[in-house]
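Hi all, long-time lurker, first post. I run a small reading group and we've been trying to get comfortable going from sequence to structure in the token notation. Rather than ask abstract questions, I figured I'd post a concrete chain and ask someone more experienced to write out its structure so we can walk through it together at our next meeting. Sequence below, copied exactly:
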Amino acid sequence: MEKELKREDWLRAARLALLRGGVEAARVEKLARDLGVTKGSFYWHFRDRKELLELLLHEWETEMPEIIDQLEPVPPRRKFDALVDLLEERARLSEEGKVPSDAAIFAWASTDSGVARRVNRAEKERVRLLIRIIGGRERMELFYLVWLGFVARGQRVPGSRKRFPMIARMMRQLFAGSRSKERVPKVDLKGLR
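-- Answer (accepted) --
Happy to help. Here is the structure in token form:
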């Protein structure tokens, strides 16, 4: 008897496949094999692969408003730290396939112009929201470029994604110094070698 899977089981498997192998790895047959079921089980939850891929992209596009909602009650002086905490948690959860992965979506966008247009549109919204949270275009760009570098490196060197807690700590140190108008504290770079 085949195990009974929920829609979320398929989505989780697809998120992991997308992260680890790109959009080509998110094929019904492969997902079914990874889950240990027949591909017929997939069609109880989705019309077709196109619907599954659309859901993966849509959940990524709509995650920033969810993050902003979580930050809404946080006092202004704590928002940056709270944002980094959320990103740290989401980076961990994306490794488990529980939430969308920026790395997977950005890699997909690099191979599909339709996905790239949607990612660019969502990214403009993200930038606007980040400016509001972080304060100032320059600070936001520095933060966002660090995040994008982390994401890009994580695609090339998957083991490096485990280092996000250390990177988050460094970002907090760097931005704490710029918030207080004091000299930026020295950041320990030994961990980057």
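A couple of things your group might point at:
The chain has a mean pLDDT of 87.
The chain is about 65% helix and 0% strand.
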